[in-house]
Amino acid sequence: MSLVDVKVPDIGGFDDVPVIEILVKVGDSVKAEESLITLESDKATMEVPAPQNGVVKEILVKVGDKISEGTLIVRLEAEKGEAAATSSTSSASSVASPQPQQAPTPANTSADNKLATSHAAKAPSAAVVSGGGVPRADATRRTEVLVLGAGPGGYSAAFRAADLGKKVTLIERYKTLGGVCLNVGCIPSKALLHAAKVITEAEEMAHFGVKLGKPEVEVASLLNWKNSVIGKLTKGLTGLAKQRKVDVVHGKAEFVDDHHIRVNGDDGQSELVFFEHAIIAAGSQSTKIPGFPYDDERLVDSTGALELRSIPKRLLVIGGGIIGLEMACVYDALGSKVTVVELGPQLIPGVDADIVKPLHKRIEKRYEAIYLNTKVAKLEATPQGLKATFEGANEKVAPQPDVYDRVLLAVGRRPNGKLIGAEKAGVNVDDRGFISVDNQQRTNIPHIFAIGDIAGDPMLAHKAVHEAKVAAEVIAGHAVAFEAKTIPSVAYTDPEIAWMGLTEIQAKAKGIAYEKASFPWAASGRSLAMGREEGITKVLLDPATRRILGASFVGPNAGELVAEAVLALEMGADMHDIGLSVHPHPTLSETLAMAAEMAEGTITDLFVPKKK
Length: 612
Ligand code: NAD
Hints:
Elements: E1 3-7, E2 17-22, E3 29-30, E4 35-40, E5 45-49, E6 54-59, E7 66-67, E8 72-78, E9 99-100, H1 113-118, E10 141-148, H2 152-163, E11 168-172, H3 179-184, H4 186-204, H5 219-243, E12 247-250, E13 252-257, E14 260-264, E15 270-280, E16 284-286, E17 299-300, H6 302-306, E18 314-318, H7 322-333, E19 337-341, H8 353-366, E20 369-371, E21 374-382, E22 385-392, E23 402-404, E24 406-409, E25 413-415, E26 448-450, H9 461-475, E27 489-491, E28 496-501, H10 504-510, E29 515-520, H11 525-529, E30 536-541, E31 548-555, H12 558-570, H13 575-580, H14 590-600
Parallel strand pairs: 10-11, 10-15, 11-12, 15-26, 17-24, 18-19, 18-24, 19-20
Antiparallel strand pairs: 1-8, 2-4, 2-7, 3-6, 4-5, 5-9, 6-8, 13-14, 14-15, 16-25, 21-22, 22-23, 27-28, 28-31, 29-30, 30-31
The chain binds nicotinamide-adenine-dinucleotide.
């Protein structure tokens, strides 16, 4: 009988790597290259294969043992007629190199088999990522995971990677962490929108016999308060980074090659950082229309609008999308006369017309004008203000030129893919500046990942955060993938609009069969008690399975209601499930259950004549 000692081969210099699985038992016949055990380092999962055909005689390790190159793991009896390989450590070289394990089913598809059948997830390309690379002598900082950009995507990726045991460097060009969202986007706009809501509600209370008088707005104090909210959050992030020992480097970064990035600080200092893995989270910036007078401070983007330098008498908002309408809402409440000009045939294109209508109806009463199918062909700086010349789309007659005290340009955002030297790292960036990724957030360069706005629409913080966690976990060797069934959107206007899953516009464009049911908030006690009755909750459902396909809401607090519909979609809930889930009364959350009851024909809060 000739025995073969199988030892751990060269596993890339790792020591004390835990055994996580024994794949054979004594007496098993194994073929050459068949896996015997699985090891898992913090970088990779590896299998050690049999060097030749044989029968397992002895297993010398158990799950949990920590082993290194040369450790004896299995003794094989060589098959008759086969020469036994030598049994010394050097024989390890005759053992095939460890093989990266095929990615198992992504962890987050296992929740529900209803879900799995309706959602064919693309399998991750591989669960194992090799970092590697050789640091240049002039690299003054070395890191396992480099994160470029400290917005919600970037800081979430950095914190998750650090929590998984990685040495992380987070690079941010601005002095504070938090990116556009915390500093000049979502959070400050919500602070101002809250003030706007209180002002408008106070005004409207007069209809109910409560007269609060005309509010006096101290712009400087309002601004201080908004800045204090930002300060609390950004300070909190700095603390969280410290607690996790994430190195934060401030400066503008550009890739030098696929393992180095140069960071140029405001102080003129520059530093070369070597990284094993990188996560690009460099975000987006406002789109500009060529030929506009950008050096005139009366022309602002969302950042400028949030600075609230003063309250203009007449504000022109170019772009009737989310940013334009949220800022219009703020300035209207603060006393500006607002005009919105939108290129498309409706406000917030992409949202179903019945859902946008209540918003349109309310703001057209409050605002000076809303021009649809119209664009600003020319914007000129004059001493009196910015003069806008309009042009109608589809042969629509355009309004006469007009002069405004301030103009907000909010016609979309474009990704920063072309500003970071990504091409020097070999990362593909498309013409618009997007970096395409697989469902593990990996770019075409396997150890470089991209998340958030730069990795594709929709450009929303909550998408970035979820993608961030996937990227960090994949780098740590987890078999996960980003495969949310939907990413909800919210416009924090008054009334709010929120939607998730399929819209009717998409269903019609793609020829997807659906049924719909809408519950009007005029029948919601809670909505009426708030003095508002324009809201609608609409569900779209699969006619065959009755499962939810999409939901849209318009009304106060719609943004808080959409999350339940997201959960319903992720869990494969049908109309019965939603309608029979007991919702607290009286709440606006009931409206989703009532829409489901409308679909089921079980509603009692309204009379719906039976279909003949
Ligand atoms: P958007 O794409 O939502 O809206 C831009 C609007 O401008 C569109 O309605 C478009 O038709 C219109 N438009 C384009 N060119 C025009 C022109 N020449 N003249 C007139 N109108 C024109 O973009 P946004 O509002 O700038 O927001 C940018 C991104 O930021 C979006 O991806 C948005 O989802 C995100 N964002 C989200 C929130 C939120 O979640 N609440 C808030 C702010 C921004």
